[in-house]
Amino acid sequence: MKQFGTLLAIFFALITFNGAFAAVGSGYDKQKVVYHVNYSDVKRSIGAMRNAQNHINALGENNYEIKFVLHGNGVELLRNVAEESAKAAGQIDSLRAQGVEFSICNNTLNGRKIALEDLYFAEASDVVPSGVAEIGKLQQEGFVYLRP
Residue 82 burial (CB < 10 Å; 0-12/13-18/19+)? Predict the structure, then answer.
């Protein structure tokens, strides 16, 4: 009977180990993530976009829904990116090509008197009424909040 208990313990240990290994080996479930950017530091923004690219690489194609919400100084990033950093512009282009959305706060545009055409690769469909309200809405829809 003692041998049966030992075999049973080994059996459960193998099942547990195999389940843990399968979870690591099979990748991740689909994720919905919102990256919050309200700073204009280009180096930090490049880091945030690099995080998003690493996130995409880990999750795999069609296994993510990633959005950036830019408000306050974060909107300045899109205004200055082409002039300040070709690397940042390239990252924005690459992320957009992979389906990442960049939402822009209309309150910031109005408050700072920023024209949409002054922003790098921005369209009217990218504008949301309020950046912080958009983040709250996305969290209610199940998006995970990240602020790199």
Answer: middle
Nearby residues of 63 by Cβ (< 8 Å), 6 or more positions away: 27, 28, 29, 30, 31
- Using alpha carbons, select from 67, 123, 125 the residue that is nearest to residue 100: 67
From 18, 9, 15, 84, select the one nearest 45 (Cα to Cα). 84
| Residue stretches of the chain with pLDDT short of 50 | 2, 4-26
Fold of 28-146: Hypothetical Protein Ychn; Chain: A, (3.40.1260)
Q: What phi, psi does 98 have (nearest 5°)?
A: -95, 10
Domain limits of the chain? 28-146
The pair of three-digit structure tokens given for residue 46, joined into one six-digit string? 């490049």
Q: How many CA atoms lie within 13 A of 95 on its CB side?
A: 27
Short-list 62, 60, 75, CA closest to 120: 75
Cβ 116 vs Cβ 109: under 8 Å? yes
CB count, 10 Å around CB of 3? 7
- Tell me, what's the pLDDT at 20? 40
